Amino acid sequence: MNMSYCRFENTLSDLRDCARYIRTPISQEEAVARRKLIEECYDILQTYCLVDSEGELETEMIAELPVEDEDEDDSA
Q1: Whether 31 contacts 25, CB under 8 Å
Q2: What Å distances lie between residue 40 and 2, 35, 43, 73, 74, CA to CA?
Q3: 45, 58 in Cβ contact below 8 A?
Q4: What whole-number distance in Å separates Cα of residue 48 and Cα of residue 50?
Q5: pLDDT of the chain along its 76 residues, tens only?
Q6: What is the pTM for the complete model shown?
Q7: Strand partners, 9
């Protein structure tokens, strides 16, 4: 198994935590980071055509994102 899966699993957990507290009062420094995080999420969705012109998620495009074959050898 390729250990890069942790990148998305760990980030998903952290992102969910951020979402729970998105409206909580925070320091100015954290507020800047929050804004940058939201902008980055938006940029990802637009850059990779994962939202349509009306801002709706393109579920078919998301489903077509590459997935590593679990039978592949990781020694390469």
Answers
A1: no
A2: 25, 9, 5, 33, 30
A3: no
A4: 5
A5: 556 668 899 999 999 999 999 999 999 999 999 999 999 999 999 989 899 889 899 999 888 989 887 665 555 4
A6: 0.74
A7: none
